[in-house]
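Researcher: We plan to redesign the surface later, but first we want a full-length starting point. Tokens attached.
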């Protein structure tokens, strides 16, 4: 994806207030991120581990989501598959919840999805990060097709947030 600046990212959030977007934690090492290998940039707030964020570029426009990772009350199944990249990394998959955009969000509506806990889908797809034994099912798709599928899944999730 195209490298983004902190300003681009803060302006891209679709499901939090302008004030929240201004205050939330954006990685300081943006210049060093492997943008060429990223379909989206995801990060966790080191000061608030239940908060995660991701930003991608959809139709040429940066689009970012604020996510919560609620503490699981029940034990989650040991191996859950990420709904974006279809990997089952040994480092885990988390249920992440996005408050819906606009009025629906103000009324408390949210949507959830399972995502790689470390938000490293792009690196798992490209084999740049080891997801562990048996983490990916053998597939005949090309990397390009897997990336397209992941982006389709992500765009679909963002569409349910902004719907
Ligand atoms: Zn993933």
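Model: Full-length starting sequence:
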């Amino acid at each position: 994806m195209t490298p983004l600046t902190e300003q681009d990212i803060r302006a891209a959030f679709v499901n939090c207030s302008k004030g929240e977007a201004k205050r939330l934690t954006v990685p300081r090492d943006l210049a060093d991120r492997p943008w060429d290998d990223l379909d989206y940039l995801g990060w966790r707030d080191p000061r608030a581990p239940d908060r995660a964020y991701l930003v991608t570029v959809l139709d040429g426009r940066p689009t970012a989501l604020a996510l919560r990772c609620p503490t699981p009350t029940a034990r989650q199944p040991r191996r859950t598959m990420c709904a974006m990249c279809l990997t089952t990394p040994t480092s885990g998959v988390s249920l992440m919840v996005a408050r819906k955009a606009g009025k629906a969000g103000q009324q408390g509506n949210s949507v959830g999805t399972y995502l790689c806990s470390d938000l490293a889908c792009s690196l798992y797809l490209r084999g740049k990060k080891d997801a562990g034994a048996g983490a990916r099912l053998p597939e005949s798709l090309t990397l390009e097709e897997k990336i397209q599928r992941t982006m389709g899944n992500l765009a679909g999730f963002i569409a349910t947030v902004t719907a």
